[in-house]
UniProtKB/TrEMBL annotation:
HAMAP family: Shikimate_DH_AroE. This is shikimate dehydrogenase (NADP(+)). Gene3D superfamilies: Aldolase class I (3.20.20.70), Leucine Dehydrogenase, chain A, domain 1 (3.40.50.10860), NAD(P)-binding Rossmann-like Domain (3.40.50.720). InterPro entries: Aldolase_TIM, Aminoacid_DH-like_N_sf, DHquinase_I, NAD(P)-bd_dom_sf, SDH_C, Shikimate_DH, Shikimate_DH-bd_N, Shikimate_DH_fam. It comes from Urochloa decumbens. The lineage of its organism: Eukaryota, Viridiplantae, Streptophyta, Embryophyta, Tracheophyta. PANTHER family: BIFUNCTIONAL 3-DEHYDROQUINATE DEHYDRATASE_SHIKIMATE DEHYDROGENASE, CHLOROPLASTIC (PTHR21089:SF1), SHIKIMATE DEHYDROGENASE (PTHR21089).
Length: 435
C-alpha cells in the first residue's frame, strides 16, 4: 500500500492473500497503478485445464495482470504454459521455473506473455535459471521476439555451458533473420520433439548425449549422418518432417587438417591425415563423426573409450582396433600419431580433468580436443608442452555451426562475418550492447 501511495506503477500480490488485500484497499487503488496477482507452484506444472481454472480464479480477485509461476520437472511442461499464454484473454505473465523451464523466460513474448524477469547482474538472480537483463536484450533480442519469430536451439544435457545461443543469435541478427536460438535442457529427446512439433520450432542443434538418439527421431536422415550414426543438426521442412544432418565431421576434420598444414610441411594434393594413426577417445556421437571423417581421409583409426564394449562396437564399424582408456596410457606403436578427444572430460567446470596423462601425450604429434569451454583445456595445454600441434575445439565449433547456419536459414554463410561474431565468444560482454 505504501508502494502504491508512492506512485509505483505495478504492485505484485500473492494470490493467497489477494482477497484480504483487496478488502484492505476497499476500492482506493490509484488509477496509475496496476495490480499483479501471483500464484507460485514450486512442485510442478499442472494440466492446461487446471492452469486455465487458476487464471479465472486470479482474475476474479480484481487483478489487472494475472501471474502464474510453476516448476518444470521436464522441459515439455513449458508447452502447457505456452498454451495458456496463447489462450488467455487477459494480460498474463506465465513463467516456468528452473533450468528446464528457462525457455519460458525468453519465448514468452512469442506467445503473448505480458513481461518476463531478468536480474540486473549475474549472481543477483531472484529465482533459479533467471537470465540477466543484458542477456535477454543483447543475446536473445527479446524486444524483437513476436508471434512470427521462428525458434531454434541446442538440445543437450547439460546445455548451460554452450556458446551456441550467443553465436547463432548474433548470426541470425546479422542477416535480418527473424528467429531466436535458445538452450533446451532435454531428458527425453523423442518426447521433446513430439511436444514441440509445430512449424515454429524450425530446427535444432544436438549435443551430448542425444546425437545418436536423434538419428532414430528424425523422419529422414542425410546419408552421411546415417553412415556416421549420429545427427547434430535437425531441420523441420515445410511439410513438417524433421531431417537430420551431421556437420560435426566436416567441422572437426577440416580444423585438424588446417592445423596440421599450418604447422607441418604437407603434400597439398592429399589429406595430411592419410596413412596416419588417428586415435579417437570416445565412442559417442562426436566420436563416430571423427572416426568416420578420419577414415574417409585415409587415416588408420583406433577407438579408445572408458567402456571397452562401446569402443569395440565403433571400432568394428570403422574397421580398426579398440582400446580402453587404461590401455591408451601405454599405447605408442609409432611416432607422429594424432589424438582426438571427443568426450566431455576437461569441460567446464571440471577443468582439471584430462583423458590422458602428460607422459602418454609425448607419443602424439597432433592433439585435438572437441571441448571448447575452456578454449585451452588441460589436455591441449599439456600436449603443447610436449611439443605437439594442438587444435582447439572452438575451431570445430565454429565450422560445424557454419554448416548449421546454412541448414537453418537456407542462406550461404559469410566466413569472415561468422568469424568476427565468434571473436566475442570468450567474452560476451564485448558484444555491442543494445541496452
Amino acid at each position: 500500500m505504501l508502494a502504491m501511495e508512492l506512485g509505483a506503477e505495478y504492485v505484485d500480490i500473492e494470490f493467497k492473500v489477494a482477497d484480504k488485500f483487496m478488502r484492505l484497499l476497499s476500492g482506493k487503488k490509484p488509477e496509475n497503478c496496476k495490480l499483479i496477482v501471483s500464484s507460485h507452484n514450486y512442485e510442478n506444472t499442472p494440466s492446461v485445464e487446471e492452469l486455465a481454472n487458476l487464471v479465472a480464479q486470479i482474475q476474479a480477485t480484481g487483478a489487472d495482470i494475472v501471474k502464474i509461476a510453476t516448476t518444470a520437472t521436464e522441459i515439455v511442461d513449458v508447452a502447457r504454459m505456452f498454451q495458456i499464454l496463447v489462450q488467455c484473454q487477459v494480460p498474463i505473465i506465465g513463467l516456468v521455473m528452473n533450468d528446464r523451464g528457462f525457455i519460458s523466460r525468453v519465448l514468452c513474448p512469442k506467445y503473448g506473455g505480458y513481461l518476463t524477469f531478468g536480474s540486473l547482474e549475474k549472481g543477483k538472480e531472484s529465482a533459479a535459471a533467471q537470465p540477466t537483463v543484458a542477456d535477454l536484450i543483447n543475446v536473445y533480442s527479446i524486444k524483437q521476439i513476436g508471434p512470427d519469430t521462428r525458434v531454434f536451439g541446442i538440445i543437450g544435457k547439460p546445455v548451460g555451458h554452450s556458446k551456441s545461443p550467443i553465436l547463432h543469435n548474433e548470426a541470425f541478427r546479422s542477416v535480418g533473420f527473424n528467429a531466436v536460438y535458445v538452450p533446451f535442457l532435454v531428458d527425453d529427446l523423442a518426447k521433446f520433439l513430439n511436444t514441440y512439433s509445430s512449424p515454429d520450432f524450425a530446427g535444432f542443434s544436438c549435443t551430448i548425449p542425444h546425437k545418436e538418439a536423434a538419428v532414430r527421431c528424425c523422419d529422414e536422415v542425410d546419408p552421411i549422418a546415417r553412415d556416421i550414426g549420429a545427427v547434430n543438426t535437425m531441420v523441420r521442412r515445410s511439410d513438417g518432417k524433421l531431417v537430420g544432418y551431421n556437420t560435426d565431421y566436416v567441422g572437426a576434420i577440416s580444423a585438424i587438417e588446417d592445423g596440421i598444414r599450418a604447422s607441418q610441411p604437407t603434400d597439398p594434393s592429399t589429406s595430411p591425415l592419410a596413412g596416419r594413426l588417428f586415435v579417437v577417445i570416445g565412442a559417442g556421437g562426436a566420436g563416430k563423426a571423427l572416426a568416420y571423417g578420419a577414415k574417409e581421409k585415409g587415416a588408420r583409426v583406433v577407438i579408445a573409450n572408458r567402456t571397452f564394449a562401446r569402443a569395440q562396437e565403433l571400432a568394428n564399424l570403422i574397421g580398426g582396433p579398440a582400446l580402453t582408456l587404461a590401455d591408451l596410457e601405454n599405447y605408442h606403436p609409432e611416432e607422429g600419431m594424432i589424438l582426438a578427444n571427443t568426450t566431455a572430460i576437461g569441460m567446464h567446470p571440471n577443468v582439471n580433468e584430462t583423458p590422458l596423462s602428460k607422459q602418454a601425450l609425448k607419443s602424439y604429434a597432433v592433439v585435438f580436443d572437441a571441448v571448447y569451454t575452456p578454449k585451452e583445456t588441460r589436455l591441449l595445454r599439456e600436449a603443447a608442452e610436449c611439443g605437439a600441434t594442438v587444435v582447439s575445439g572452438l575451431e570445430m565449433f565454429i565450422r560445424q555451426a557454419m554448416g548449421q547456419f546454412e541448414h537453418f536459414t537456407g542462406m550461404p554463410v559469410n566466413d569472415n562475418k561468422f568469424r568476427s561474431i565468434t571473436s566475442s565468444l570468450d567474452n560476451p560482454n564485448t558484444m555491442k550492447p543494445r541496452l
